[in-house]
Each structure stands twice: as structure tokens, then as C-alpha cells.
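Example 5.3 — AraC family transcriptional regulator
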Amino acid sequence: MAWVESIQRAINYMESRLLEPISLEEVAKQAHVSAFHFQRTFTILTDISVGEYIRRRRLTLAAQELMHSSIKVIDLAYKYGYETPEAFAKAFRRQHGISPSESRKFSGMLTFYNRLTIQVQLKGADPMKYRIVEMEDFQVAGIKRTFSLPNEENMKEIPKFWDQVNNDGTDDQLFRLNNGPIKGVLGVCVDNKNDKQIIDYWVATAFDGDIPQAFGQMTIPASRWAVFEVRGPMPEAMQQVWNRIFTEWFPTSGYRHAGTPELEVYSSDDPTSSDLYSEVWIPVK
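Solution (predicted C-alpha cells):
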């Protein structure tokens, strides 16, 4: 259960620094993974982002202080990292539904979020279909965008990127170009080695040959891959498999993420089909 312990260690780190600026990169170091992989894992496990968890916990603690102390609202705002009392009051009302002054008078209900504790539920009734594959490095051709990790920009903008390539015909070009060892169009997440605050995201396809001018090229390194079968319509089926990978498979498999690019593999079939076949490729060690 070392994987579970590493995630809990990162949560404990956040909890110990709720009154300080918290860097996603520093949080991820506690779990021995990249900022992107921690962000993605945390969101899959909890259904909220790292930033949202921190905001909820700070506003929960702030409400407790308002109820049980005489601290001024302006001092509380600065204590919990808000630049102005107005910004604090707006965030407070968004979470609790009442103003800070109203909470002090016990004149409304408050929304409290407890400290997270990661627990694993071991399930076996519904099997997960996967295989382990050893593969040499290979080339992909496609288009790349760079997204920022702070404020979860990547989580908001990557779906828009996919909408763009689906609507402008880029995905059709990539399906026609595909001649490499993996069949389909790929979503590829790549940690940026020079700037830990950003990631590179590719919509690409495995291709061996002269790259058309409209596309860029990158090398996917030789890896041992855990390849998971995905059956069902998008995006629900893909999301469900990612959830099971992190809540069931990683905690009990003995494997760890290798930290190199991971892949989602999509076919050209009807994305609404109940029998649509897709895959998740995770580099493991």
C-alpha cells in the first residue's frame, strides 16, 4: 500500500501548510510523482482539484475561527491567503451560503469539509481487463499545446483542444496518417522537463515516415506498459476506467507509474456506441 501512503503523505503536507502559500510541485514531491500526475490522481480519487480542496479546507477552518474566536474578519482574510476582505467574503459566501458576519451570529448553516483520509476499497466482482506490454520507442506525429498546471488550466483547456481537433478535421488526418505500432488517435500527456508548472499535451498518432508540414513529431520512450481495455461511450467509459485504475489497480498491483508519457487511445468508431473500444496505456515500473 506504499502508493496509498504516498498520496496520504501529500495530503498531510497540504494540511500542515494551509496558512502558507502551497505549491502544487512541492505537494507532488511528497508523493514522489510529477505535479501533473499528482493533480490527475488526486482529482480522480476525490472528484475535486487540488486547488479546490485547499480552498474548501481554508474556508472551513476560517468558519470555525469566526464561530469560536473574536478575530476580525480582515485579519482572518489575510491569515487564510486572501488579498482583501471583499475577496474573502465572496469566497466565504460561495462555500457557506452566508457572509462571515452572519456566521459569527450563528444565523445560518455552514458547509464544513473534513480533512481527507485516503481509503482503498478492494473490489473483485467487476474484473478489469489489462495486459502488460514491453515496447521499444516509437514516433508519433500530431499537434501539441502547452497548458499551465496552476489553477488547473490544463483540466479546463484540454477538452477544448479535443473539440478543436474534432471539429477542424485534424483527427481525420491523423487516422489516415496512422501506420505505427498503436492503432488510433492518441492523447499524450508529457511532463515539461524545463518548467514544472506546465505540461505538453499532444493529439497525435503513431507514425513512421516523413512528417507532414502541419504536424510536429516526438518520440515515445521504450516502456513497460499496462494497457487497459475501455468499453463504452465517451467520455464516461474512459473516466470510469481511469477511476478504477487509481482506486483499485494501482493500490494493489505492485506497480508504480514510471513518470513517462501516458496515452489514451481512441478509435474512429462512433464515440456514442455502447460497445466502443478504447484503451489507456500507462508506463509502469
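Remark. The longest helix spans residues 50-68.
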